[in-house]
């Protein structure tokens, strides 16, 4: 939603700070002060004390009077204007402080920053327990005894049954009848099955997630002829939830070292998120669009479509090109396309791990464990076996996203570092990455932990880990050499999830050398291939990044002087009013909130090039002319505030236009940055989106 607050003559002293001469400012201040004094007197005399607004002692008469005006006149008065738009508003309508010709300066963060290291700790144990597994599968999917099983079991006394299951839909499974199995049997009916065994007076069971190559997919890869401009590359794409680039370096140092020093990965320092949460990270990657730009798929909305009916997923392009596909997530309860969205009508990929975790989350006592073993080892093995079990000449597209270890804990992912590194190293050593684009990434940084409350934490949330590696043999070709050089140039450029979309499509139709060397125009295209050079002049606006998420902006403390505190407090009141207006239709369930305090306020300062830009020097429009002397006419503030009841902490971006003066609050820029727990329990089923802002009365 978008809320606009317009304070006319009463706010002119603030406007005078920046815009008017000392003489004019003094003149207006005199008359406004006189008016404010009369208004305050009127308020004290006529308004009952029970109806008065709480005003902090340090706030000036100017701020007090503006608050009173909002209270006395209300939103229908011409002095205070409030408008609202839904989440489906066009992104182009969002106000931005960026301008053509500006240069994005990527923040350089220290992974060992003391305020961040305060939260760094040894990882909590997974808590895996129990006797070692009795049985396992070999590379041909045949049942065999484990080393432990060979020492304690008698094959003649062992009786086992297998129950295979597969996807019926995104919320239901289809089970095959239980069948008796023995050592040496090939268990390849589906990728997933439950094995139960009895041995004398003991029993054992294990849930298997096992890659079973399908002949029909192998044949498809042979039957579909690749395009003449095909790159010849597979795609191996793996990610973790809630890890910034610096968090990757802190928690997965061995993996990062392998990627950079052995695999030749390029880590994108300027990879900037474009929205809040995992869907807003992956939808642009997989479709080139935002959720708001695509047809409605939210499960709570009547008539919403399934995501595969509405979204042009890039893996469909790969499937049509003869690729065998894997799409995997390990957290069925909070799936990217199934938690809030309607999910898939048809199975989205040839291998789809949601099917396994639908049951595993019910079966497992500890979802982080496969009995005595870490579950992430099963996860890595499934990905590795996909590359190994299918023939090398079978085209492969794998996208797997892991959330269990890192979604709710900032340290536990450390336990997977060596296992992840070792899996990647084995695939490289054995040649499975010789013809693969390897993408290792995260969706965003930590969002809810205390680390996010720090200055660096805010930046880290917006700068997740993103790395790409082209195989060494491919880099030795003319196309590969140019693409790799461009990729390295883009390491320090502003990049986004949108850019991954054309980059993936390039694998199917790789650009010519001439095209790779042709400059991309960020003013015409929001998504830019990472195999071609991304211009240094690219702005957040051009890249589809709202100022709320844009990290290449220079912030300064806006809560130092009394005047700054007054203005920041006023902005915070506007934010609270916006939230209350949004929850008002559900006031019977959700309490009205009030401003408790302003925690911090920062002001965004446009960079020098932005203000100097006044055209271009060359006929093609590539060389900016920086000879202007534009004055800043509006400022962007980022306010962090606490409200009561509920002790919610919000972070919001607002714009202050000194020429109005006008205060603009974009509802989409408001983020709830601490955990709300069960405070909104009364509204979640009715309207999930209000949960961020609702405090139920029984929690007041």
UniProtKB/TrEMBL annotation:
Cellular component GO terms held in the UniProt record: extracellular space
Transmembrane feature ranges: 28-46
Name of the featured protein: Sulfatase domain-containing protein
The entry's keywords: Membrane, Transmembrane, Transmembrane helix
